[in-house]
Amino acid sequence: MLLRDYRFPGRYGPEWGSGGIFGLRYHRGTLYFTLAFEAEAHFVDVKSGEEKVYDFTLLGDAPTSGGDTYNAVETVDEFIYFGGWVHAPAVYRKDRRILFTNKYSHVHAYDTKEGTVKLLWKDSIHHETDWAGEVSDIIYDPYNDRLLLAREDGHANLGVYSLDRKTGKAEALLREPSAKGTVVHDSAFFGVGNNFTEGLREIRALDLITGKWETFRAGESVDGRPYVRPGYGPLASAYNRAFAFVRGGIIAGNPLMGEDFRFFRLFDFYTFYAPFRVNAINTGGGILIAYNAHHDAAYRPDDGFTWATTNTLVGPSVLLYVAPPMVKIVGTFGARVTSIEKMDGKLLVATNSAPNTGSTEATPFDTGNRDITVLDEKILQQRPPTVSFSLPLALPSMAKEMGAGTFGGIPLDGYREPRMILHLSRDNRIRVYEYDLSLPAGEATEETFDVKAGKNVLELDSFGGILSFELEKGDTKGKVRIELR
């Protein structure tokens, strides 16, 4: 594969913090991606290395900024459909604000035969502080030959929309905020809920044949303990089930075939460690997904709670291969993974060194260093990399006061010497819940250990699958380190 650039330092692109490389998609000899916040759509002929760059000026005047921050891309026939949002032109103010008057949600089509870009659809409410729902997912409906658009990030025109890919006419099918979806059998499943207030509230299923909707609860946790704020990233389809990747776990199942959705706790640290602003792809019959350490964050300290939960770094971003009942770590990365694609036996992993910020924290340029890492697909079959997670126990202790507090959800598949090191300020007891991603879901088994004030080492090599943990009493001064070797 020939690429003119693998690394992209920050350049002019007014927005909040850093965007990234999004929408990686290889289709009919062309590799597409959008570089945000510079608002550049790249189309690379992978044989010749010839590259075309589009600046989104079909939406409005330059200088443009934005592009896509959710991986809204789909391919049908010779076309690559790419969506998101763009400021055209961008308006940056010196009080660290950006005006949204010229912010457009959009869907474009790139013709791989002709090498041309066409604007298919756009939407804007032309407001200084509010914007029309960004296009965060594009799903092809083969029965009706249309595109389904998911829109959750915004203030108006949220929900699921149908877009005619010939005329560009859009029609609302659901007016509840929805960021992501996936097709399972002959239905399209969509997550519903506001990601920055409540997370995934429920899952709606659209029958592509009849056009009828059904509503399903997110489901109970297999470890039997409560979970909170399941903000969600991508939904994916495999095994005739829908998999919703959320902050703190995976919600998997399919009520349409008689199996309720269940919550499998995974990387639940009561921080913003989550599968946000990244896509999931099918490979080898399973699902490849990333959980990110630092995707969105408050830059300037507020009351301490938001800043702490978004800036506490408990571990690296991890690349996961999900093949039930197994969940396997196959790669470790820095602040965040923004997009994943496979091509010619290789995995393309786009990364970023900095998060999105928000509110009055806009900058006139992108603040991250973004790059594309090329890996061999054989990592899916190799032993997982060494990785560790370090968590201040004040966070699950605060969650305990809110009725939660179970933390972890650490996948042990492939590790021979996993262990937990606890530094405690008081004597305590710790419960260890053991389960895996079996479908239909089973229940976790439980072991309890007495732990003392000071340093405690728990060897975890007698366990398997996935482990979550809960201290009987809160410990606001303690900390825990989980090492996987």
UniProtKB/TrEMBL annotation:
<dbReference type="InterPro" id="IPR016675">
    <property type="entry name" value="UCP016666"/>
</dbReference>
<protein>
    <submittedName>
        <fullName>Phosphate ABC transporter substrate-binding protein</fullName>
    </submittedName>
</protein>
<dbReference type="InterPro" id="IPR015943">
    <property type="entry name" value="WD40/YVTN_repeat-like_dom_sf"/>
</dbReference>
<dbReference type="Pfam" id="PF09910">
    <property type="entry name" value="DUF2139"/>
</dbReference>
